[in-house]
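## retry 2 of 3
previous attempt timed out at serialization; input unchanged, resubmitting
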Amino acid sequence: MKLVDQITYKTKYFTNTDDLIEKISKKTVVPYQLEVQPGRIKGNKICWMPCSYCYGGSSENDGQRLNPERYLDIIDQTNNGPNGNINKIIYAGYATDPLNYEHIDDLIEKSINFGQIIGVHSKLIKISEKLVNLLGSEKIAETSYLTVSVDGGDDKSYNLAHSLTPKVKVYDKVIDNIKKITTISKGNKIKLDLSANYLVTKVNCGKAEVLRGIENLINAGVDSIRFSFPQLPRGTNSYEGSIIPNKEEVKKIYTDLNPVIDQFKDSKTKVVLIDYDAVKEINKPRTLPCFSRFIYPAISYDGYLSNCSQSAATHFKDMALGNLQTTDFWDAYYNYDEKDIFRFMKNEFKKMIKNDCRCDRKEHTVNQILKDEIGDRF
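## retry succeeded, writing output
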């Protein structure tokens, strides 16, 4: 998989539609990847920041968690499946940050030792020395990656984007942590793809701060930088009072920033600006039929196996595949009626609409491909 395909939503998560449906009906399907979203054990907050554009901002922290031993047991199970192993584990978060979890090093280390491809999505406010060394280890599987959400080009724009007070100094720490990883990985000649995501809002879209941001990230050694626009969070249907730009504002910002991005067209670091919703004409919260649970399920911070990364939270429990505290991974994953898969899935779609779950861009893309190929079977 090329890095540019990954950051522009071009990854193909399945090979053949009929083959996928046949495997689902026979319960032999194996996820393309599993996303693990561990929630911090201590304290009331499950993330570092109160970002106003957070998709999972409406989530609740009920304190329910898998214990550290059970998490490790679940990763063991992913590497010992009845129909094959899960070869790719993503460590990320819904209203959380995986590096805010106290035992994240142990989980990532286990995946690396299994030879699983790993992906880490984080704001990288802090990182342990152990994890820096793991990401720079020769054991790490090829095509493993780290994606850092930066969303600012300096302290001021970073703080505005993340709803932080002006006195807080976080941005420089993030850049320094990127440098720690790129220094050791490139020093050891380890090919860890390190990309930066910059969600463009009304408060961080100035040409000067975007230019500074690109220069800082290139100097820190990232392989790619993606500028894109945030989606409206779950539970929100209006742009009024939000820092998220509406469609007309997106068009203007896109036009303003294009010349800045174009300055780096010959840079070794790939720099892209994407208005993906406009390109793919995405104007609805979800695309049905939804096949997420079979392709890229997620373990939510409360320890439930969920359909996808965007439904991995407490208010989606009636959609969950199972409670992993009491149910093993593969038993939960294969917990569906294979005798009438289309009727089963239609019933699940009703829950998705009721709970206001929303597709992220990769889910819109994959579900639309499947919708076009399946035709009227739904």
